[in-house]
Amino acid sequence: MLRAAMPLLDVERAVLASHDAAAFDARIAAFAAGHPSPNGESVRAAERALALATESRRRGGLLVLLSGGASAMLAAPVAGVDLDAKLETARLLMRAGAAIDELNCVRKHLSRIKGGRLAAAAGTTVTLALSDVHAPIADDPSVIGSGPTVADPTSFADAAAIVENYRVELPAAVRDHLAAGLRGAADETVKADDARIESSSYAVVGNRQTAVEGARRAALASGYDVVVRDEVIAGEASRSGEAFASAALRDASGRRRRICVIGSGETTVTVRGGGSGGRNQEFVLGGLTFLQAQPAEGVVIGSAGTDGIDGPTTAAGALADWTTIGRARAQGLSSRAALEQNDAFPFFAALQDLIVWGPTGTNVGDLHVVLLD
Predict the structure, then answer these.
(1) How far apart are the first and last CA of the chain?
(2) Which of 32, 249, 272, 295 has its CA 20 to 30 A from that of 321?
(3) Res 296: pLDDT
(4) Which residues, given as ranges, of the chain have pLDDT below 70?
C-alpha cells in the first residue's frame, strides 16, 4: 500500500484494527512516501516494489494500481545520483516552468524503476491507472507516474534537450549521468520492442473526464445549465484563468438561466517571486484580473486540484466572486501584487476564500468552474 504522507483514514484504521498485526504486516507494507517531493520512504517504497516485481516472476505476475503522484512516491535513483540530487533537479525544472511530461522524461532517465523498469523486473504486469496526464497525449501511459510498467518513447537525448531548453544548472552527478547516457555508457529506459514487457497490459480506469462528469452531475442537480469546455486547459496558470473566465462569459451570453461552465486540465506556474501559492490559486487570480474589467455581479470563479493539494500549501485551490476586489482593497491587498510575487495563498487566506478539503489520496488533474447567476 503506497500513499502520500498523511494521517490514516478512518477506514484504514478500521481495517488495520480488524487484523492480527503480524499476519497483516506479512501481506501489506505501507510507506508514508512524500509528495510532491520524494523522501526516504519513497526510496524504501521503490526498493520494495522492485523486490516484489522480482518475486512475482515465480507467482505469475504483478498487479500495479497506479496514479498520479507515483513519480514522487516511487523513487529509486540510479547509481551515482542520490535523492537530494533528484530533488534539486525536479525543483529547478519546475521553477523554470517545465511541463509534467518534460519533467518526467528527465526523471525517468535518472531512475531504476521508472520508464518501464518495474515491468521489466517483473516480466508480467497488469496495470490499472488513474490518469493526471492531459497533454501532449491524453492519458499517456508512459507519462503517468513516469511510466514504470510501459515502454518509454523518450531518450537521453530528449532529457538533455529539455535541460538545455530551460537553461538550468543541474547537480554535477545528474549532468554526469545524462552525459553518460548520451555517449551510450548508461542504460536507456525500456523500449517497445523489449521482450521483457511483452506480457504486460495496461488500462486507464479514471481521468479528468471522470472528474468533469461528476462536477457536471452535481451542477445539474443544483439547478444549473451546464457547459463543459472539453479542451485541455494548460499553460501559464494566471493567463489560463483569465482566458477561461473570458470564455465562460461568452458561453453565458444570451442565456436566461443560471449557468455553470466547467473545464479541466493542469496549468503551470513560472516562479518569479518568493511568495506562497499554487497553480489553482494563481488561476483564480488570473480570472479575477479579467473580471475586474467586466460587469461581473453574480459571477463566481473557482479552481481546485482533485488531489486536494495546490503547490506547497494546505489548500486545494481558491474561489473569487464579484465582491473579492472590494474586500481585498478594504484589507489593503492587491491581486496584481499577489500575482507578481507568486503570493496567492495569503491573499485568499486573508479573504477566507481558500478551498480546503485536505488530501484526497488521488489525482486526475484540476477542475475549473465559473458560476453565473
Answers:
(1) 44
(2) 272
(3) 66
(4) 1-27, 295-296
* Radius of gyration (C-alpha) of the chain in whole angstroms: 22
Cell digits of residue 152: 518509454
Q: How far from 322 is each of 301, 304, 325, 328, CA to CA, in Å?
A: 9, 19, 7, 11
Residue 340: Cβ within 10 Å count: 12
Task: Return d(Cα 312, Cα 32) in angstroms, integer.
Answer: 17
Q: How crowded is residue 330: how many other Cβ atoms within 10 Å of its Cβ?
A: 9
Identify which of 277, 360, 356, 357 has the alpha carbon closest to the alpha carbon of residue 311. 277
- pLDDT given at position 5: 35
Task: Judge if the upstream peptide bond of residue 141 is cis by omega within 30 degrees of 0.
Answer: no
Asked if the peptide bond before residue 312 counts as cis, ω within 30 degrees of 0, the response is: no
SS in 3 state form for 84-101?
Answer: HHHHHHHHHHHHCCCCHH
Q: How far apart are CA 146 and CA 191, in angstroms?
A: 14
User: Grid cell 521508472 — which residue?
Assistant: 114
The single-letter code of the amino acid at 9 is L
Cβ atoms of residues 125 and 64 within 8 Å: yes
